Protein backbone atom coordinates (compact mmCIF):
# COMPACT_ATOMS: atom_id res chain seq x y z
CA UNK A 1 0.00 0.00 0.00
CA UNK A 2 2.73 2.46 0.99
CA UNK A 3 4.73 1.51 -2.07
CA UNK A 4 1.72 2.27 -4.25
CA UNK A 5 1.21 5.67 -2.62
CA UNK A 6 4.90 6.53 -3.04
CA UNK A 7 4.77 5.50 -6.70
CA UNK A 8 1.68 7.66 -7.23
CA UNK A 9 3.36 10.67 -5.59
CA UNK A 10 6.48 10.16 -7.68
CA UNK A 11 4.35 10.11 -10.83
CA UNK A 12 2.67 13.36 -9.80
CA UNK A 13 6.04 15.03 -9.22
CA UNK A 14 7.40 13.79 -12.54
CA UNK A 15 4.26 14.92 -14.33
CA UNK A 16 4.46 18.41 -12.82
CA UNK A 17 8.18 18.62 -13.67
CA UNK A 18 7.42 17.67 -17.25
CA UNK A 19 4.70 20.34 -17.56
CA UNK A 20 7.00 23.01 -16.07
CA UNK A 21 9.81 22.04 -18.45
CA UNK A 22 7.38 22.21 -21.41
CA UNK A 23 6.18 25.70 -20.45
CA UNK A 24 9.69 26.93 -19.76
CA UNK A 25 10.86 25.94 -23.22
CA UNK A 26 8.34 28.35 -24.69
CA UNK A 27 8.96 31.09 -22.14
CA UNK A 28 12.67 30.96 -22.95
CA UNK A 29 11.86 31.22 -26.67
CA UNK A 30 9.56 34.15 -25.93
CA UNK A 31 12.22 35.79 -23.78
CA UNK A 32 14.66 35.68 -26.69
CA UNK A 33 12.12 37.14 -29.12
CA UNK A 34 11.18 39.95 -26.73
CA UNK A 35 14.67 41.15 -25.86
CA UNK A 36 15.12 44.90 -26.10
CA UNK A 37 16.84 45.05 -29.49
CA UNK A 38 14.03 43.06 -31.12
CA UNK A 39 11.30 45.17 -29.55
CA UNK A 40 13.08 48.37 -30.54
CA UNK A 41 13.65 47.26 -34.13
CA UNK A 42 10.38 45.52 -34.98
CA UNK A 43 7.98 47.52 -32.82
CA UNK A 44 9.75 50.88 -32.77
CA UNK A 45 11.97 51.55 -35.77
CA UNK A 46 9.65 49.86 -38.29
CA UNK A 47 6.60 51.88 -37.21
CA UNK A 48 5.93 55.61 -37.63
CA UNK A 49 7.11 57.50 -34.55
CA UNK A 50 3.65 58.44 -33.31
CA UNK A 51 1.82 55.32 -34.49
CA UNK A 52 -0.60 53.82 -31.93
CA UNK A 53 -3.25 51.12 -31.87
CA UNK A 54 -6.47 51.12 -29.88
CA UNK A 55 -6.66 48.52 -27.10
CA UNK A 56 -8.95 48.00 -24.14
CA UNK A 57 -7.97 49.34 -20.74
CA UNK A 58 -7.77 45.71 -19.55
CA UNK A 59 -5.20 44.97 -22.25
CA UNK A 60 -2.74 47.46 -20.78
CA UNK A 61 -1.43 44.78 -18.41
CA UNK A 62 1.55 46.03 -16.44
CA UNK A 63 3.56 44.81 -13.47
CA UNK A 64 1.53 47.04 -11.17
CA UNK A 65 -1.66 45.32 -12.30
CA UNK A 66 -0.14 41.88 -11.68
CA UNK A 67 0.95 42.87 -8.17
CA UNK A 68 -2.48 44.32 -7.46
CA UNK A 69 -4.25 41.17 -8.65
CA UNK A 70 -1.93 39.00 -6.55
CA UNK A 71 -2.78 41.08 -3.51
CA UNK A 72 -6.46 40.42 -4.20
CA UNK A 73 -6.01 36.65 -4.06
CA UNK A 74 -5.59 35.58 -7.67
CA UNK A 75 -3.44 32.53 -8.38
CA UNK A 76 -0.27 32.53 -10.47
CA UNK A 77 -1.92 30.20 -12.99
CA UNK A 78 -4.84 32.59 -13.40
CA UNK A 79 -2.44 35.49 -13.95
CA UNK A 80 -0.42 33.51 -16.49
CA UNK A 81 -3.58 32.59 -18.36
CA UNK A 82 -4.80 36.19 -18.34
CA UNK A 83 -1.41 37.45 -19.54
CA UNK A 84 -1.32 34.89 -22.38
CA UNK A 85 -4.87 35.64 -23.55
CA UNK A 86 -4.37 39.41 -23.43
CA UNK A 87 -1.09 39.36 -25.34
CA UNK A 88 -2.34 36.96 -27.99
CA UNK A 89 -5.18 39.42 -28.59
CA UNK A 90 -2.76 42.34 -28.76
CA UNK A 91 -0.58 40.55 -31.29
CA UNK A 92 -3.65 39.77 -33.39
CA UNK A 93 -4.59 43.46 -33.40
CA UNK A 94 -1.07 44.43 -34.47
CA UNK A 95 -0.80 41.89 -37.27
CA UNK A 96 -4.24 42.87 -38.61
CA UNK A 97 -2.93 46.34 -39.50
CA UNK A 98 0.28 45.07 -41.14
CA UNK A 99 0.65 44.09 -44.80
CA UNK A 100 2.43 40.75 -45.25
CA UNK A 101 5.47 42.51 -46.71
CA UNK A 102 5.90 44.72 -43.64
CA UNK A 103 9.26 43.91 -41.95
CA UNK A 104 7.52 43.25 -38.62
CA UNK A 105 4.90 40.83 -40.00
CA UNK A 106 7.04 37.70 -39.66
CA UNK A 107 8.18 38.71 -36.17
CA UNK A 108 4.59 39.02 -34.93
CA UNK A 109 3.67 35.67 -36.50
CA UNK A 110 6.53 33.99 -34.64
CA UNK A 111 5.36 35.51 -31.34
CA UNK A 112 1.82 34.31 -32.02
CA UNK A 113 3.06 30.75 -32.53
CA UNK A 114 4.73 30.81 -29.13
CA UNK A 115 1.66 32.22 -27.39
CA UNK A 116 -0.47 29.50 -28.98
CA UNK A 117 1.59 26.99 -26.98
CA UNK A 118 1.31 28.99 -23.76
CA UNK A 119 -2.47 29.45 -23.87
CA UNK A 120 -4.27 27.27 -21.30
CA UNK A 121 -6.18 24.24 -22.57
CA UNK A 122 -8.73 24.50 -19.78
CA UNK A 123 -8.92 27.84 -18.04
CA UNK A 124 -10.27 27.48 -14.50
CA UNK A 125 -11.24 30.82 -13.01
CA UNK A 126 -11.24 30.86 -9.22
CA UNK A 127 -11.49 34.57 -8.42
CA UNK A 128 -14.29 36.98 -9.27
CA UNK A 129 -11.99 39.80 -10.36
CA UNK A 130 -10.35 37.65 -13.08
CA UNK A 131 -13.76 36.48 -14.26
CA UNK A 132 -14.84 40.12 -14.50
CA UNK A 133 -11.77 41.04 -16.57
CA UNK A 134 -12.29 38.03 -18.85
CA UNK A 135 -15.94 38.96 -19.34
CA UNK A 136 -14.98 42.47 -20.47
CA UNK A 137 -12.36 41.07 -22.82
CA UNK A 138 -14.92 38.77 -24.44
CA UNK A 139 -17.14 41.69 -25.46
CA UNK A 140 -16.71 43.19 -28.95
CA UNK A 141 -14.18 46.04 -29.07
CA UNK A 142 -16.74 48.60 -30.10
CA UNK A 143 -18.78 48.10 -26.90
CA UNK A 144 -16.42 50.08 -24.69
CA UNK A 145 -13.81 52.85 -24.62
CA UNK A 146 -10.26 52.14 -25.66
CA UNK A 147 -6.77 53.50 -25.19
CA UNK A 148 -4.27 54.48 -27.90
CA UNK A 149 -0.89 52.84 -27.18
CA UNK A 150 2.34 52.41 -29.11
CA UNK A 151 2.98 48.80 -30.26
CA UNK A 152 6.43 48.78 -28.63
CA UNK A 153 4.97 49.92 -25.30
CA UNK A 154 2.54 46.98 -25.36
CA UNK A 155 5.35 44.50 -25.95
CA UNK A 156 7.47 46.21 -23.29
CA UNK A 157 4.65 45.41 -20.85
CA UNK A 158 4.47 41.86 -22.15
CA UNK A 159 8.19 41.38 -21.51
CA UNK A 160 8.12 42.83 -18.01
CA UNK A 161 5.15 40.71 -16.95
CA UNK A 162 6.80 37.61 -18.44
CA UNK A 163 9.55 38.09 -15.86
CA UNK A 164 7.12 38.76 -13.04
CA UNK A 165 5.33 35.45 -13.74
CA UNK A 166 8.06 33.08 -14.95
CA UNK A 167 11.52 34.34 -13.99
CA UNK A 168 12.02 32.19 -10.89
CA UNK A 169 10.34 29.00 -12.10
CA UNK A 170 11.95 29.05 -15.55
CA UNK A 171 15.26 30.68 -14.56
CA UNK A 172 14.99 33.41 -17.19
CA UNK A 173 18.07 35.44 -17.97
CA UNK A 174 17.92 38.95 -19.37
CA UNK A 175 21.10 40.45 -20.84
CA UNK A 176 20.10 44.00 -20.01
CA UNK A 177 21.01 46.87 -22.26
CA UNK A 178 21.92 50.31 -20.95
CA UNK A 179 18.98 51.69 -22.92
CA UNK A 180 16.41 50.18 -20.55
CA UNK A 181 17.85 49.68 -17.11
CA UNK A 182 14.31 49.75 -15.65
CA UNK A 183 12.92 46.94 -17.81
CA UNK A 184 12.11 44.42 -15.10
CA UNK A 185 9.64 44.67 -12.27
CA UNK A 186 11.18 45.90 -9.00
CA UNK A 187 10.46 42.88 -6.79
CA UNK A 188 10.74 44.79 -3.51
CA UNK A 189 8.05 47.31 -4.45
CA UNK A 190 4.38 46.51 -3.86
CA UNK A 191 2.35 49.25 -5.55
CA UNK A 192 -1.21 50.11 -4.52
CA UNK A 193 -4.25 48.63 -6.22
CA UNK A 194 -4.46 49.97 -9.75
CA UNK A 195 -7.65 51.26 -11.34
CA UNK A 196 -7.33 50.22 -15.00
CA UNK A 197 -9.33 53.15 -16.35
CA UNK A 198 -7.58 55.80 -14.28
CA UNK A 199 -4.03 54.43 -14.26
CA UNK A 200 -1.38 56.23 -16.29
CA UNK A 201 0.24 54.08 -18.99
CA UNK A 202 2.93 56.16 -20.57
CA UNK A 203 6.32 56.33 -18.90
Automatic annotation (TrEMBL):
One of its GO terms (molecular function) is macrophage colony-stimulating factor receptor binding. Keywords: Signal. The keyword Signal applies. The keyword Lyase does not apply. Pfam families: IL34. GO terms for cellular component: extracellular space. Residues 1-17 form the signal peptide. GO terms for biological process: positive regulation of cell population proliferation; positive regulation of macrophage differentiation; positive regulation of monocyte differentiation. This is Interleukin 34.
Amino acid sequence: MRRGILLFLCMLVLGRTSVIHYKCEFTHALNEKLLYDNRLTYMGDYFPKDYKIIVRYEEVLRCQNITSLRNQGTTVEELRSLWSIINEGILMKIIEVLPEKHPSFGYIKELLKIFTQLLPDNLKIQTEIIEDIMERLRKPDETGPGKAVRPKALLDNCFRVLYALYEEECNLCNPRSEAEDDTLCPSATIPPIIDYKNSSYER
